[in-house]
């Protein structure tokens, strides 16, 4: 059902990707296009969430480690998928952040399921609700009459019903 609804959408603000028909397709997009980090291979600095941040770090701390014309290649080779989501990765609720704080680590599959559930709930909420119409009311009345007549036909007569 969710495949027909195309209930999955990229959670990154500046992304113009269309709707996704499966949770797998949507999360694959996010992991390949957005959930990336850049690691400095010159030191043990924590990973950077933007390539520009790594570039600035290398220029400020490691400018002696190579010519500046190699910097774009160094940055490109430093890109990796994010292995652990951040506590703030759910833009729809605080529950992810709370559970993240309790366990002190995140898991990408748990984040996929968590965000996916939100999107499924939103998609179901957006569906039009069936309102009773005249045809539907007539069908319900006919069903009730049919059930009543079936109940009446199951009546078993007794000797008392026959009279004197």
Describe, in plain words, how this protein is organized in 3D.
52% of the residues lie in helices and 4% in strands. With 164 residues, the chain is mostly helical. Strands 1-2 form a two-stranded antiparallel ribbon. Helix 3 packs across helix 4.
Series of H and E elements: HHEHHEHHHH
Task: Using the CA coordinates, give the radius of gyration.
Answer: 30 Å
Q: Overall pLDDT, averaged?
A: 79
Gap between N and C termini, in Å? 64 Å
Shape summary: elongated
Fraction in beta strands: under 5%
Low-pLDDT stretches are 151-158
Number of strands: 2
Helix fraction bin: 40-55%
How many domains would you count in the coordinates? 2
The biggest beta sheet, please?
Answer: 2 strands, antiparallel
Structural class: mainly alpha
Tally of separate helices: 8
Kindly report the spatial arrangement of strands forming the biggest sheet: 1-2
Would you spell out the secondary-structure blueprint of this structure?
Layout: H1 2-5, H2 23-33, E1 36-38, H3 51-61, H4 71-77, E2 79-81, H5 95-103, H6 108-126, H7 134-153, H8 159-162
Antiparallel strand pairs: 1-2
Helix pairs in contact: 3-4
Features:
mainly alpha; 4% strand; 2 domains; elongated; 164 residues; 8 helices
Task: Give me a quick take on this structure.
The chain is mainly alpha-helical. It contains eight helices and two strands.
